[in-house]
Amino acid sequence: MFFVSIPLWFKGIGLSILGFFKSCGLAIKNEVVDIVTTFTKGNWAVKLSFLIFGFGNFYYGQIARGILFLLFEVVFIGYMIVPSGGMYWMSKCNWFQVGSTVGTVQGGNIEVELAPGTGFFVEQWVDGDDSVKVLLYALLTVIFIVAFVITWRMQVKQCRICMDITAKGKKIKSGKDDLKSLLDDQFHKTLLAPSLIGILAFTVLPIIYMVLIAFTSYDAAHDGYANLFSWVGLEHFNELFDFGKGGLGLAFGEILSWTLMWSFFATFTNYFLGMFVAIMINKKGIKIKKFWRTVLVMTIAIPQFVSLLYVSNLFTTSGIIGSVLEKIPFIHDWRVSNNFVSLWDSPVVAKILLIVINIWIGIPYIMLMATGILMNIPNDLYESARIDGASSVQQFTKITLPYMLFVTGPYLLTSFVGNLNNFNVIYLLSRGNPLNSEIGVAGGVAVGHTDLLITWLFKMTLGSPESKYYMASLIGIMVFLVVAVLSLIVYNVIPSTRNEEDYK
Q1: Given CB 3.0 to 4.6 Å as the disulfide criterion, which of 5, 112, 216, 227 pairs with 124?
Q2: Are 173 and 161 in contact (CB under 8 A)?
Q3: Measured CA angle at 367 (ends 365, 369), to 5 deg
């Protein structure tokens, strides 16, 4: 039933996207109509506020608002026209002009005479533009312009509201009333403001900057300082989706398929085995329950950096487990015949080891969470099921599992997304190895059978002398799209959202 509903779900998503754009178009149309109506029907104070921020607020006695709006306009105009202000950075950025550099002045060495008449010259570095800073400041300028337009619309709308309130003979809020409101009925806005600013500064801005980098030639050879990077348009997108032999598309598809497979098994093996362990420990008759829980929690107490590196060495030929397995004849013959130095050299075995070791790491977390949830399932449900003759398996499938899925549905989603970007386990255990001989080098780095998109991205930027930041940004965009699509699908099918009323 689930797989049958997937096409219908995608159809619904398509219709929702279409409806979104239609609603955006309608909203823009309504805004334009409202602006025109405000100008034509507004009095002279409202009309003048189209040019002078806060003029209408001053006219209607809202001095504090008027000062803030006017100050914002003055700061914006000043920032845009000063020598190193907004217009300066916008002109240097050359937005999306393919072949044009981000920045206009290239730094370099020039010959400078040590002293006049000596005839001795030395090379001296002269700073030029820094593409990284130029792009950042230009982006901040664009955001400032957007904020200016929004503020302009806001203050014009407020002026019209003041005009309408005055026409009805009602009292207009003063600055003191506004301040009281922010600490009373509008207090939620006061609390949300710092969080919203933080999200814009530390989440939205870096994401937009990352997207822009994908359209440039930013790498080690074009670091933006010694050599300016330039706009390349969709060139890198064509490179990523080149599925020919030696193309990045082949490597991207291979790594993406393993990333999804890894995330699926890493999430659900931990989930069901952790739940099983919690059920077994909580069964009646099990003694020293605290001891078993403590033993499992020990893996959480040890830092992953230490435990994963140690476990990785256990499976080499010189490690404890590897040396024991080496004494088994058919394993030894299999390793020698395939020229494998250790178990990590086999792509299939390496992937199995990663999943198994991840189970060892993840089960304690699920066990602790499941223990708390199991204790909150009403015993009356189990007693009624036993009276009706339900077996242990039926009790699990009809009571325990549905309840667990309802409560932990959002956790499953976040866990799946987290495993898509699980850098620690993969890199500390296998470093993406063994190397994939069929693909070889892609993106300037050797591709491994166990590489995830996140480890491939890391190798491109910090593990390669070429440091292809533009390709890493592009892969980051692809990861975001994959995560967004899967999150939307899973979120709409988990019981936590579909069957919420059944558990109230």
Answers
A1: 112
A2: no
A3: 70
